[in-house]
Design goal:
It is a single chain. This protein is mostly helical. It has one domain. It is 62% helix and 4% strand. The chain contains 10 helices and 2 strands, in the order ααββαααααααα. A two-stranded antiparallel ribbon has the order 1-2. β1 and β2 form a beta hairpin. α7 packs parallel to α8. The chain is globular, with a radius of gyration of 22 Å. The protein starts with a helix and ends with a helix.
């Protein structure tokens, strides 16, 4: 990678850290603190939020009938999500130690906390749980795939990638066969940034 690309990458990481810090300030704005990895809201806020809950029937009646009829299709997607979650977890536990790749911590990606918010009705809670799990599985699988790709095929695409995964910046430039052949073995072991966290 060129020095300029390295500098830009570091600037992006610094901005992401700054953004995370600003987002944490929202805790105060919405009257909660984090204790033992759980959000603790002020009692006054909980009472106000619960007072504004609508009934599940009223919530569902706000959607067109076509949207309601899609619910079985949405929930059918839970089956492949569960299967992928199980198989990818088994895969990383068997293969990553052989490749010497740090394992992906599932709980960093599959975070189930929104479904329990005090201001959601029962249907909203179920919907939140579904989305938390399903999207969490996708994030988790993506990180495992990213680390696998770094080991087996760390080459960037010829076209710009719209949403790069976490390991993409460590990949070799498309067409740079000299650097690829020279540094491939070293790049397959370059997970030091994960060990620092």
């Amino acid at each position: 990678m060129s020095k300029k690309i390295d500098e830009i990458t570091e600037q992006i990481k610094a901005l992401e850290a700054e953004l995370e810090q600003e987002l944490r300030k929202k805790h105060d704005e919405f009257f909660y603190t984090i204790k033992n990895s759980k959000a603790i809201f002020e009692e006054k806020v909980i009472h106000e939020g619960k007072a504004k809950i609508t009934s599940s029937i009223k919530y569902l009646s706000a959607f067109p009938i076509g949207a309601i009829l899609t619910i079985p299709f949405i929930w059918a997607m839970m089956i492949p999500a569960l299967v992928v979650d199980i198989f990818v977890t088994i895969y990383q536990y068997i293969c990553f130690p052989i490749y010497k790749i740090p394992k992906v911590k599932r709980s960093d990606y599959i975070i189930i906390d929104r479904y329990n918010l005090f201001y959601l009705d029962k249907v909203e809670r179920i919907n939140c749980w579904y989305c938390e799990y399903f999207n969490g599985v996708i994030y988790y699988v993506r990180e495992i795939a990213a680390r696998t790709e770094q080991y087996w095929c760390p080459i960037k695409h010829s076209k710009a990638v719209k949403d790069k995964h976490s390991r993409y910046d460590k990949f070799f430039e498309y067409g740079d066969f000299i650097t690829y052949r020279k540094n491939l073995k070293k790049r397959r072991r370059d997970f030091r940034d994960l060990e620092i966290k």
